[in-house]
């Protein structure tokens, strides 16, 4: 899954695809095409940054950004579009336009989001986040981070099923970097296979995150190699979908790992 942030302020790549409020369509299509050529099966389009301190975006602004990207990419590229949003209007319109997946870092907890997800009939990804982005790093007090995050996800899966989402339409995501300390993030990755007992595909997003900066001391633009290493470790521990900024490098890393596993 390649990351396409149509935002001015995302933590790693904000502002590259938008300038003075306007989408840079040529650059966006070029980036999307390159990610698909490099091996991305899914592109994750986001119109609102989840970075702590990011400027709030109105639903209309988010809608304009996301729909601009969806309408540009869908007719031109053979790829599944995932929509990174917590906003019901964006879920509804993107689904109508042909999006293939809803990725909500708030696990469809905003008012109206669950109904929009059910009405879309799309597959959905449920992520754990301990609190809203501005406060989440104050909420890292877990008895056992894996057991607690798993319990949260199990509960949200039950809520979704109750609301009418079929089990085979759901994915879970532990939410690396969303209200976890550095050591909790690495513990979740080390014990990732424990999440598999929920019986759902696991999505992992560790690309260029601060858990890498904390260990390497590198800025986000220099975290490509360790991101690819963590992607391989996640795949080896049963992740099905890996959300990345650097598709080519990750695809190469996964290819040599698969060859090592006998998949030549
Ligand atoms: C939008 N977004 C940023 N980081 C993410 C992650 O780790 N997982 C998912 N599902 N979405 C993310």
Give the overall silhouette.
Answer: globular
CATH architecture call? Alpha-Beta Barrel
Figure out the total of helices: 9
* Overall pLDDT level: 96
List keywords for this structure.
binds 9-methylguanine; 14% strand; single chain; two-stranded antiparallel ribbon; alpha/beta; 264 residues; globular
Question: Describe it for me?
Answer:
The structure is a single chain. The chain is α/β, with parallel strands linked by helices and 264 residues long. The chain has one domain: TIM Barrel. Helix content is 41%, strand content 14%. The chain has nine helices and ten strands. The protein has helices at 25-37, 59-73, 88-97, 113-120, 145-163, 182-190, 210-216, 224-236, 247-260, and strands at residues 2-5, 18-19, 22-23, 42-46, 80-84, 101-104, 124-127, 170-173, 202-204, 239-242. A six-stranded parallel beta sheet has the order 1-4-5-6-7-8. It has a two-stranded antiparallel sheet with strand order 2-3. A two-stranded parallel ribbon has the order 9-10. Helix 1 packs across helix 2, helix 2 (59-73) packs parallel to helix 3 and helix 8 (224-236) crosses helix 9 (247-260). The longest helix has 19 residues, at 145-163. The protein is globular and about 40 Å long. The protein starts with a strand and ends with a helix. The model has no long low-confidence stretch (mean pLDDT 96). It binds 9-methylguanine (9MG). 9-methylguanine binds at residues 46, 50, 84, 103, 105, 125, 127, 173, 175-176, 203, 205, 243. 9-methylguanine (9MG) binds next to strand 7.
